[in-house]
Amino acid sequence: xxxxxxxxxxxxxxxxxxxxxxxxxxxxxxxxxxxxxxxxxxxxxxxxxxxxxxxxxxxxxxxxxxxxxxxxxxxxxxxxxxxxxxxxxxxxxxxxxxxxxxxxxxxxxxxxxxxxxxx
Length: 119
Known about the structure:
This protein is α+β, with helices and mostly antiparallel strands. The protein has a single domain (about 5-100), classed as Barwin-like endoglucanases (Beta Barrel). Helix content is about 15%, strand content about 25%. The protein is built from three helices and five strands; from the N terminus they run αβαββββα. It has a five-stranded mixed β-sheet with strand order 4-1-3-2-5. Strand 2 and strand 3 (about 45-50) form a beta hairpin. It starts with 7 loop residues before the first helix and ends in a 10-residue tail after the last helix. It holds the Pfam family Molydop_binding. One of its GO terms (biological process) is respiratory electron transport chain.
């Protein structure tokens, strides 16, 4: 699974892992697609590109898994479901803060077009 993520053209298209943020939250935080942010909690932190989309509800973040630079698993809560022993991936709480605006080299190669629209 995901072996193509190591291809050079994939690295150009998605040079950093991304975090999906709701447009309302992005506006409140002064973020736009392509901005560099830190996602952090008591478990760890990571640097991500913001992808503003209405695919996530306000107050919710979605972090990409399996990026070649990693980082999203460092944020996962230590809690595991007692019946399944599966980590609480979708229930982990985290904060988001802007680190920098858009990176010009990333803006040239990455696409931030809405992905969940089917017209």
